[in-house]
Amino acid sequence: KRAAERKGRIRTEIKLRTALKQQPQTKMANTFTLRQIGIVISPYTKRMGTPRQGSLTPSSRAYVEFSQDIQPTALEGLEQYSHVWIIFEFHANTNLGAESRKSKIKPPRAPKKVGMLSTRSPHRPNPLGLSLVKLEKLQGRKLYISALDLVNGTPVYDVKPCVPWDVPTTALIVPEWVSQNDVASVEFTHNASSALKKVMETVISPAYEKNQVELVKNAISEILAQDPRAGNKRGTASDKPYNIVFGSARIEFVVSSNGVVQVVGIKKIEFPQESYVDGIPLLSEVT
User: Fold this and answer.
1) Own/partner pairs for 200-203, CB < 8 Å, 24+ apart?
2) What element of type H or E holds 214?
3) What CA–CA distances, in Å, run from 228 to 48, 49, 155, 248?
4) Is 199 in a helix, a strand, or coil?
């Protein structure tokens, strides 16, 4: 019953989001129109399973594919930098206009509500994000990156090189709940490891080479080590399999009483074309 209710709620929210985006936009005072210059192709198919910070998953791989109106000459010299900033849209939000009006919200790891602008929540007055990623290589209009936290299909509005002056010279001060370290150990069963090798050629993101099985396994481990389950489940044991989606593969895992996350299955998922909204497949059964 709860799954059916959740499915209905998500579909209603998505219909509302689609309708809002299709409405004619009236130019208002103190507004600025952004032009999309590219799109992110990443293995993070859903919001759940996307790391909260890219640096937590150094084995993640993706690329930014720039639009045809962005000439390759505009990217010349970018390959000389190790890291770049990506300015993007939180395009997977399903509650446009609602959350952005809330002045206080409760982040998943915070003990209580805090001011919305004191968080990195995707639900903001302007749904814009800023992400620091590692630059791997530049080929034509494709910028290959690693250590990212960007959902597949994310619209990109700008890319800027990271320079030494972007990095604070003194230690960062953050709330305790931001800096807490709750990393878990991750193990793969023999069957899960074998299944991963079988799906590498067909369902893993094109940002990975077919022979990079260990790199993909590391990326999945880095995601699960953060326990991507809902806040009320995080840190608890469960024999019931949970799921995240990586590329077009369903990653099934359980959490033992001693906190170890065990990957027990990896299966290919077929995405009907009509199930996509803004590049995000509707998978209500993925919990």
Assistant:
1) 202/248, 202/268, 203/247, 203/248, 203/249, 203/268, 203/269
2) helix 213-224
3) 7, 6, 23, 18
4) helix
- Is pTM beyond 0.90? Reply is no
**Upper half-sphere CA count for residue 113 (Cβ side, 13 Å):** 6
At 138 the pLDDT is 96
Name which of 29-33, 81-85, 201-205, 234-238 the model is least confident about.
201-205
Alpha-carbon distances of 187 from 21, 56, 165, 232, 247, rounded to whole Å: 42, 17, 39, 23, 20
Q: Tell me if residue 90 falls in helix, strand or coil.
A: coil
Separation between Cα atoms, residue 155 and residue 278, nearest integer Å: 10
Residue 271's contacts (CB-CB under 8 Å, 6 or more residues apart) are 248, 281
Alpha helix segments (H runs only) across 66-189: 176-179
pLDDT tens column, 61-114: 999 999 999 999 999 999 999 999 999 998 877 665 555 567 888 887 888 999
Helix or strand or coil: residue 212? coil
Could you tell me the pLDDT band of residue 48, with boundaries at 50, 70 and 90?
confident
Helical ranges in 108-199 per DSSP H: 176-179, 190-199
Three-point CA angle 77, 84, 141, nearest 5°? 55
The gap from C-alpha 134 to its chain's centroid, in whole angstroms, comes to 15
Task: Give CA–CA dist 47/130, Å, rounded.
Answer: 16
